Amino acid sequence: MKALRLTGWKTEPELVEVPKPTPGPGQVVVKVGGAGACHSDLHLMHDFDDGMMPWQLPFTLGHENAGWVDAVGDGVTTVSEGDAVAVYGAWGCGKCERCRHGVENYCEDPAAAPVISGGGGLGLDGGMAEYLLVPSSRLLVRLPDGLDPATAAPLTDAGLTPYHAIRRSWPKMTPTSTVVVIGVGGLGHMALQLAKATTAAKIIAVDNRTEALDLAARMGADHTVMSDAAAADAIRDLTAGRGADVLLDFVGAEATIELSRAAARPLGDVTIVGIAGGSVPFSFFSQPYEVSMQTTYWGTRRELVELLELAARGCVHVETTRYSLDDALRAYHDLRDGDVRGRAVIVP
Ligand code: NAD
Ligand code: ZN
Ligand code: ZN
């Protein structure tokens, strides 16, 4: 079968021929129906040197996957051939307390996991191929009726990651509050819809591309703001001078972190999700009083179940731009150039 594989650090992936996987005991092979192209893959192929990640090359990219069960190994009883499934992408040890609660994104025994701090497409073979080997059936969530795999795939990361970040800030997202979404790409376009679908907060979208701001307006943002030196003042103007209660930064550059805390209201939350690698000095006076600054990584299995339900009911729309496996590299080039609307999804 064909697979798009990362074969070296600081190189582009290659489309190569690899054997189709077969499932061992407890494992499942999924016929891939959709694999999302995440900006993190661009960081993987361009920013990381040899030795920075605890992973062996080569491996197939694609950590945002859904499809149909193709074959199950001995002992698998929770799914059967033909089931449409989403793949929960953070593959932990399955046994530590966090994993037992479905919080495999923060597994506490990564050395006992199939791969250290990763999953399919992050250190192990991922979904940019015709078939994907999933090491345990517990990592599969059956798709509710009305959700096809190519639409569901982005929900497993572009949807799940902002859902997790928003969910932990729910108590601050009241009808009188404001949430700011910075970066309306794959994750951000889901974030603003998730804020809208699950809270009554006012939503301000910020991006440096007009097409992204147009998409944000269509997806229900109350206001859009160009990401520039005037953005923090614009957000204060839109909030009667108070600032925003929750700011979600899907870029993570120095400029966007600075913007987030400059536009925060006292007692607010600033959550850095993007991994552009920006840093800012932190001191008593560097942000308004009682602003919490945090990072989040991916989401939990329970949250994926909730999110799939929300999407199946039509409460959020996954905007996808679809590519064939042969065109997967072009998807990454378009993502790098800012030419993808919503999420790029490879449909093998
Ligand atoms: P994307 O390329 O689809 O979207 C990024 C958006 O940010 C684009 O719309 C772009 O125009 C906008 N942008 C870029 N610079 C900006 C600036 N200075 N101000 C405002 N907007 C700006 O990327 P994505 O796949 O949505 O990923 C977003 C980030 O989140 C990436 O850094 C990715 O690696 C990271 N990520 C983190 C997690 C996590 O668990 N923390 C999970 C997935 C992705
Ligand atoms: Zn990702
Ligand atoms: Zn664990």
UniProtKB/TrEMBL annotation:
Entries under CDD domains matching the protein: arabinose_DH_like (cd05284)
Reactions it catalyzes: a primary alcohol + NAD(+) = an aldehyde + NADH + H(+); a secondary alcohol + NAD(+) = a ketone + NADH + H(+)
Cofactor(s) the protein requires to work: Zn(2+)
Uppermost EC category: oxidoreductase
EC number, UniProt record: 1.1.1.1
A UniProt-annotated Pfam family: ADH_N
Enoyl reductase (ER) domain mapped to chain residues: 2-346
InterPro entries linked to this entry: ADH-like_C (IPR013149), ADH-like_N (IPR013154), ADH_Zn_CS (IPR002328), ER (IPR020843), GroES-like_sf (IPR011032), NAD(P)-bd_dom_sf (IPR036291)
MF term (GO), any: alcohol dehydrogenase (NAD+) activity
The entry's keywords: Metal-binding, Oxidoreductase, Zinc
Family: Belongs to the zinc-containing alcohol dehydrogenase family.
Protein name listed in UniProt: alcohol dehydrogenase
Source organism (scientific name): Mycolicibacterium holsaticum
Lineage: Bacteria, Bacillati, Actinomycetota, Actinomycetes, Mycobacteriales
